[in-house]
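hiii so um. not sure if this is the right channel but i have a protein structure encoded as tokens and i wanna go backwards to a sequence. like what aa goes where. can anyone help
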């Protein structure tokens, strides 16, 4: 693998850890989450461990990555749901809509990591890569733009959706950055409409 060396990408990381991480990654850089990863998963080894912890302890764990009160409430609600069901989440978008603290992004993460579906981890970074290379979306909210959603699903249609997702996110982080993209190092720059303009 040539992407970022993040702890949840190692073979020893389990589904529980990978889904938890996706909750923590919202509005937070991967490198920031990586710093708290060892301590957090050293303390919490299952959904039941998190569900049984006081919310104040979770807040302390999340202070280094920001939005700690919100993250603590979300993680506790999600963990309580999972612990009561042996760690199993619904396998459909409709079923996941009833799970606390699960929006579109976390739902896709659950479907990718637990149910092995071809779902995009579509955030502003993946959206930026797609929009620069193909065309801008029409709606402000990436969750509701039908064209962008379809394009993201098309992007991860291969046999290894997890690897594809991670590769696109790494590309967005290292090359197709929000400010000062490194177009001279981009392997598809010659065909990129954004660079041409």
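sure thing!! here u go:
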């Amino acid at each position: 693998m040539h992407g970022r060396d993040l702890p949840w990408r190692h073979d020893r990381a389990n589904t529980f850890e990978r889904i938890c991480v996706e909750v923590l990654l919202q509005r937070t850089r991967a490198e920031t989450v990586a710093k708290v990863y060892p301590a957090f998963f050293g303390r919490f080894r299952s959904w039941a461990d998190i569900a049984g912890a006081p919310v104040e302890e979770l807040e302390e764990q999340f202070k280094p990555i920001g939005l700690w009160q919100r993250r603590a409430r979300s993680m506790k609600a999600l963990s309580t749901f999972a612990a009561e069901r042996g760690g199993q989440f619904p396998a459909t978008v409709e079923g996941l809509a009833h799970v606390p603290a699960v929006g579109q992004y976390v739902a896709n993460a659950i479907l990718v990591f637990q149910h092995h579906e071809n779902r995009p981890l579509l955030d502003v970074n993946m959206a930026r890569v797609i929009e620069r290379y193909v065309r801008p979306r029409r709606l402000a909210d990436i969750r509701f733009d039908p064209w962008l959603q379809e394009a993201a699903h098309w992007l991860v249609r291969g046999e290894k959706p997890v690897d594809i997702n991670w590769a696109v996110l790494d590309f967005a982080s290292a090359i197709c950055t929000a400010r000062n993209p490194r177009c001279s190092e981009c392997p598809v720059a010659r065909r990129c409409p954004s660079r041409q303009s």
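oh and The two ends are 33 Å apart (CA to CA).
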